[in-house]
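I am still getting used to backbone structure tokens and would like to learn alongside you. Label the sequence line and the structure token line clearly, so we can match residues to local backbone shapes. Would you write everything just below, so we can both look at the same thing?
***
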Amino acid sequence: MNKKLISTGALFGMIAIVLGAFGAHALKKTLLPEQLLTFETGVRYQMYHALFLIFIGMLGDLTEKTKKIIFNLVVFGVLLFSGSIYLLATNTMTSFDFKVIGFVTPIGGLLLILAWGVLFLHFLKKKPKK
């Protein structure tokens, strides 16, 4: 599970850097400033959660079950949250109206919050070592 967490985190981080550079260079000429800010929000949250996955993969005292739950919440959260933000920010560049998928953005955000909540509850319930 640790390899899966760290490799997925590294992949999400790499993709976030590519998309951030794409936004800063190619999309800067095409999008309005507020659309670019929205796109950058997606990149920022993707990077935060890439680092979160790497951190979880390096934590030694989480159970495999807890790591798997966090992994699934983060992966689906990033796909729904950041993915929908990328599509919504670039909506004017295609003929398809991505506003119809806008409802998935808060669902993705909720999944990301729940991932952090699982980590919080794990440490809240953890008994102190004597």
